[in-house]
Amino acid sequence: MRILVVEDEQPLADAIARGLRREGLAVDIAYDGPDGQEKATITRYDVIVLDRDLPRLSGDELCGEIVASEALTRVLMLTASGSVEDRVEGLSLGADDYLAKPFAFNELVARVRALGRRSTPASPPTLTAAELVLDSARRRVRRPAGEIELTRKEFGVLEMLLSADGAVVSSEELLERVWDEHADPFTTTVRVTVMTLRKKLGEPGVIDTVVGSGYRVPSAGVEAALDTSDAGRS
């Protein structure tokens, strides 16, 4: 998931971003309303963690713009104003959830993940291919030979490829959804990550390279179609 944290208290914003990144999420930060507005316009975020009391452009105004854009992005308002009236007002502005400061970080993570699942088509809790099983909730990957240890980025790439259900995912899309705004668009990091991921997953190979397009993990339906096509040519 790609997350945007819009929070003018820089130490808090940085701490939230670090914590979410440890959970395997790609996180960008904006320290005021206009910066958050610009980033939300350029990038499709799954979830925006939004402070209501922002300088130069309030969180309420930014939330209204996001809702008006009809984007799939979900908004979690994070604010010191935690009364029932404040929560009702925040939700009436179009926010999808509301969390008052101070908060428990594990609750923030749970709420962000729940909103992220609502921003994209639902995926099953476990994804499988070629006897490989990815457990999204427990962040575990295993094959018959045992569990496979992956880095956060490797896990994110594999999860995205499996979720595509046989469709091709471009390097640009992987870079946008798994990394964050600091990733160099001209870097080879996606290719290198896929290469190390393949080595860790072992044989039989799971990830196909589609030259000029990106990468794919064939689904059972795709594999069956390929087999039928091959049989017709023989």
3D architecture notes:
With 234 residues, the chain is of the alpha/beta class. 44% of the residues lie in helices and 19% in strands. It has nine helices and eleven strands. The chain has helices spanning 10-22, 33-42, 59-68, 84-92, 105-119, 152-163, 171-178, 189-201, 220-233, and strands at residues 2-6, 26-30, 47-50, 74-79, 97-100, 126-129, 132-135, 140-143, 146-148, 208-210, 214-216. β6 (126-129) and β7 (132-135) form a beta hairpin. α2 (33-42) runs parallel beside α3 and α6 (152-163) crosses α8 (189-201). The chain is elongated and about 55 Å long.
Key traits:
234 residues; alpha/beta; five-stranded parallel beta sheet; four-stranded antiparallel beta sheet; 9 helices; 11 strands; elongated; disordered C terminus
Q: What characterizes the major β-sheet?
A: 5 strands, parallel
Low-confidence stretches: 220-234
Strand order of the largest sheet: 2-1-3-4-5
Oligomer state of the chains in this structure:
single chain
Layout: helices, strands, pairs:
Blueprint: E1 2-6, H1 10-22, E2 26-30, H2 33-42, E3 47-50, H3 59-68, E4 74-79, H4 84-92, E5 97-100, H5 105-119, E6 126-129, E7 132-135, E8 140-143, E9 146-148, H6 152-163, H7 171-178, H8 189-201, E10 208-210, E11 214-216, H9 220-233
Parallel strand pairs: 1-2, 1-3, 3-4, 4-5
Antiparallel strand pairs: 6-7, 7-8, 8-9, 10-11
Question: What is the structure about, briefly put?
Answer:
The protein has 234 residues and is α/β, with parallel strands linked by helices.
